[in-house]
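== Folding the chain ==

***
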Amino acid sequence: NDWEIANGLKPDDATGDNGATGDPDHDGMTNLQEYLAGTNPRSASSYLKIGSIELSGNAITLTFEAVANRSYTIEYRNNVRSGPWTKMTDFPAQPFTRTVEIADPGAPASTARFYRVVTPQQP
């Protein structure tokens, strides 16, 4: 596969660091997860993440880097350890990498809220 070759993996070797469950950069993301996210499996600083969360008054704004040709969903929940993740919004795939900024209009003023970005876009 072209992605494996471009990222220094061996497409004919499905074991260890080269396999789908390998993690050559030891960032906790498997090669399969890095492939789906469009990130570099050999760079621990390259992984799908929310880049910033800013609070201004009662408004919360999140940013993340959206990789070309990937779709995303931002989800949230109000308890870090339990409860379902709720879809906040979707970002369809675009043919270019970009920084995405989204405001959470429903953020509660008095309780915590936890966010995650997932790819591909969730139903």
